[in-house]
Amino acid sequence: MKKFNKYVLKIYILNLISVLALILILYTFFQIIQHTKYISKYNTSLFDIIIFDLLKIPYSIYQVFPVAGATAVVITILRLIKNNELIAYLSLGGKIKELASLIVILNLFFTGILI
Questions:
Q1: According to the 3-state scheme, what is the secondary structure of 69-115?
Q2: Which of 53, 61, 69, 82 has its CA 20 to 30 A from that of 25?
Q3: This prediction's pTM
Q4: Can you give the residue ranges of every domain in the chain?
């Protein structure tokens, strides 16, 4: 694997983790707010609702991963464009097809893990 591909993978995985964490925090926060109606309905505590929603995090990851993956791809490509790294890669003979296939294969790998 080329050094540039390793560099892009590193950037992509860091972006994916940060975006996934941010979306997961927001998603869990709004789930907790939505479930506060159960306090009066089932006479439960806020702590129980928080624990319930934290136990649903694996399912939440499964739900928000497609959005996080797409957002991480966009952020990675924008970062490469902003720093003129994509232009340098293309001028040295790199192909967009190779870069795109690298990201698609990585996303398919993560999708296989989630399934």
A1: HHHHHHHHHHHHHHCCHHHHHHHCCCCHHHHHHHHHHHHHHHHHHHC
A2: 82
A3: 0.83
A4: 1-114
User: What CA–CA distance (Å, rounded) separates 42 from 32?
Assistant: 15
C-alpha dihedral (32, 30, 25, 12), degrees to nearest 10: 140
Give 56's DSSP letter.
T
Q: What is the pLDDT of residues 53-112, one digit of tens each?
A: 899 999 999 889 889 989 999 999 999 999 998 888 888 888 888 888 888 888 888 888
Return the pLDDT at 113. 85
User: With 80 as the cut, is the pLDDT of residue 28 above it?
Assistant: yes
Q: How far apart are CA 62 and CA 66, in angstroms?
A: 8
**Residue 95, both tokens:** 């192909």
